[in-house]
């Protein structure tokens, strides 16, 4: 890896730097026949320039919905009901509509979609799609645009001329992922959002893509958000980590510290349930139960309590709010944060692994 | 993220089916129309026993209380003709559609599942059937055969019309073949019969059912056209014969009196087409347990 | 016991303009899977892993080599005689969403193979039902699942049903092809530990095919790890040895690609930079990996090295002209230790 040390000092000085994106108290609701189901509840998160934020969660945790609200592009029947997403130089994205919203997407916020390996138009060359992108954003200097795309391609280890003349099917999964990043950044976006950038890639392509994300991020001084289900992916590149569960951000803090001393029982259990390359594999413990979806989510109290080894009566009653417990670290849990020792902190629940009873 | 909906409590199969059928008003209307015509074909002729009455006093009578849809050139009641004529038309179309669906599904399933030699052979046969010009063939056949029985006519229509179904089923089978559950069934050593009938067939059933419904419309059109053109000897009362006579004997083009005589069978064909199209929307849900339980 | 000797599979594709193109999916793969043992195959996509799984479960044929089940060479048997042997090796598919027939409920999914077995064993209906409930319990599901359709189950539950279905025919080996990559992260370890349990408690051997070395290590404890590159095994040995002291540069690249859990782990001191993309078409007379290898010399392009044992350790074999141990895998962070 080119430089395997992430900028942990970024976390220390974070408070001083203005946030590129400020998400405040964001709630996204899916309107269905069964009533309004909250996919994201009161989420607050800052993305700062020069910092990679990792957003980790399982399917159904609301992480992709949260990321899409940065573009104000939550798919129907979803709707942003409360909160704001302030993007520097643009304003509150949730209030933008029509043309202004469209121009913001792409030019201020670069978004690399989930499965972007398949999000290229199969009937057009990459170059043509680049020009389409430029025209729809009313770029005057299309030559300059192509030149910049070429630069980005070269920086990612792609042969620019070949790639721009290629159709989607002529490129491998890893290459398409890189082109997704090129297209997201070619309009000089300062915020880069990557939704599951390495899913469906094997380890070697994943490592290459992560390496590229890291170097592009650093060279352009971006504020980057990486959305993923894979702890390994974020811990490899992220400076800060936010863990989502059941639509809530349950823990948030500097990546290394959060991994070393997870304070929320979900984070702790998730790390404990990871098959790792070091240590005794026999120590890994599966999480009991299964992740909730919108319909099985607890309406009252803590959303994790059914699977939580530390659940208390109060967890039935009230939903813990995300609050700062040590400088720079946030958690949403009623239980006292565990002492610093990780080994002692990993719980060892071993009930029936995957009971069917979780669903009504 | 994907939004998953809660599954409804398990209902008995019959009431689940009922719920699917009544979920949208269009489906109820469609089903109603289909049932109405089915009843008409089954019991219509029983309402009017004997041959159709001829009343020379009332030729081309306009609609009245006695003759709801007026009368034709011979003074016969148009409503009676429509009702009696439904049996031949609908029976023919149903037999043709069922035959085409059965042959097409079998050929497609076996070709797609066995691949190799069986596939090549069956697909050449399918190509041959697809290239048969249907209408001219029927015209030629009608010189050898008098299509007295709706059954015979249906079989002939069906025998020329299964190529498309076979193609579609084969394509589906080929894509399902690579799915994990079929590989697992082969790996478990389940019998080929089981795999074809229990694993594959239910998964292609919605396609077959939709094809079947659509082909009913096609076959009605085809046989009515044959009779309308007059290339098949008029051997029975049916809508095609009515159309033919309205145009060629009744002179509907010049005299407006024959209009109801022309419009009645046309309206029936349109109505049944509408009924099938409206109902088709329920087919996918009927066969797919996932869609079936989504309320 | 399952033994594979020199299994080779070559596909010949014929394009209208490109002429014939051969893809060597498997080039002489050898392994022995003892009863209750574990063998893992790791490699990137396009390395022939999936073909190997299909060959072992009888879904694909092979051109050369021997596949012995308890000493019987399956290549020499007719298709009919072969089937019962292949039934003893069951596949656990990668995608639990397509591995179950959406039109059949779990009771039918388990009942079909049980009924088929009953024709041989003479089990009654009641015994079959009992066995189905027993199997569900074994994989950690409640009997209520029997009445459910696959879409009513979560990914983790489906994969458990897939495992239960494989167990209906009392297999002696399970072939797991990336069996957890499509399951929610918090559910993965549950499935992996289920497979571990089956190996421990029922003596079912495991052949695990993956690109994720960490899960291979979890499942393959005490077993063998084979690293496969473009159809050829380029390094093999006891799992821990290969992970901790890999000597082939490709293995080292693969292990370097494993993300490091910062804070808990430190990157290995010799960690290598990510590799460029694989070009499957590149033909080379020499070492298959030479075109991408960071340490390749002129020698490497000339001759293809065969699998040879390290002088110090007969079980640890490699196919490299310049083997050198490098510490690329992460180590536990000092703060944690």
Summarize the structure.
By secondary structure, chain B is an all-alpha fold.
Give the SSE map.
The complex is a heterotrimer of chains A (360), B (295) and C (337).
Chain A: H1 9-12, E1 19-32, E2 35-48, E3 51-56, H2 63-69, E4 78-87, E5 91-92, H3 98-107, E6 109-112, H4 126-136, H5 142-155, H6 160-164, H7 173-185, E7 191-195, H8 203-220, E8 223-228, H9 231-237, E9 240-245, E10 248-254, H10 255-260, H11 265-272, H12 313-317, E11 323-326, E12 329-331, H13 342-345
Parallel strand pairs in A: 3-8, 3-9, 6-7, 7-8
Antiparallel strand pairs in A: 1-2, 1-4, 4-5, 9-10, 10-12, 11-12
Chain B: H1 13-22, H2 25-47, H3 78-114, H4 116-131, H5 134-144, H6 150-160, H7 163-177, H8 180-188, H9 192-229, H10 239-249, H11 259-280, H12 283-287, H13 289-293
Helix pairs in contact in B: 2-3, 2-11, 3-4, 3-6, 3-7, 3-9, 4-7, 7-9, 8-9, 9-10, 9-11, 10-11
Chain C: E1 2-15, E2 19-33, E3 38-42, H1 49-56, E4 64-69, E5 72-73, H2 79-87, E6 89-92, H3 106-121, H4 125-138, H5 155-167, E7 173-177, H6 185-202, E8 205-210, H7 213-219, E9 224-229, E10 232-238, H8 239-244, H9 249-256, E11 265-266, H10 298-302, E12 308-309, E13 317-318, E14 331-332
Parallel strand pairs in C: 3-8, 3-9, 6-7, 7-8
Antiparallel strand pairs in C: 1-2, 1-4, 4-5, 9-10, 10-13, 11-14, 12-13
Could you explain how this protein is built, in words?
The complex is a heterotrimer of chains A (360), B (295) and C (337). In chain A, 31% of the residues lie in helices and 22% in strands. Chain A has helices at 9-12, 63-69, 98-107, 126-136, 142-155, 160-164, 173-185, 203-220, 231-237, 255-260, 265-272, 313-317, 342-345, and strands at residues 19-32, 35-48, 51-56, 78-87, 91-92, 109-112, 191-195, 223-228, 240-245, 248-254, 323-326, 329-331. In chain A, strand 9 and strand 10 form a beta hairpin. In chain A, helix 7 packs parallel to helix 8. The longest helix of chain A is centred in the middle third of the chain and has 18 residues, at 203-220. Chain A is globular, with a radius of gyration of 21 Å. Mean pLDDT of chain A is 83; it is low at 1-15 and 340-360. Chain B is mainly alpha-helical. Helices cover 72% and strands 0% of the residues of chain B. Chain B has a single domain (69-293), classed as MetI-like (MetI-like fold), CATH 1.10.3720.10. The radius of gyration of chain B is 23 Å and the shape is globular. By secondary structure, chain C is of the alpha/beta class. Helices cover 31% and strands 23% of the residues of chain C. Chain C has an eight-stranded mixed sheet with strand order 6-7-8-3-9-10-13-12, sandwiched between helices. Chain C is globular, with a radius of gyration of 21 Å. The relative contact order of chain C is 0.13. The interface between B and C is medium-sized, with 24 and 34 residues.
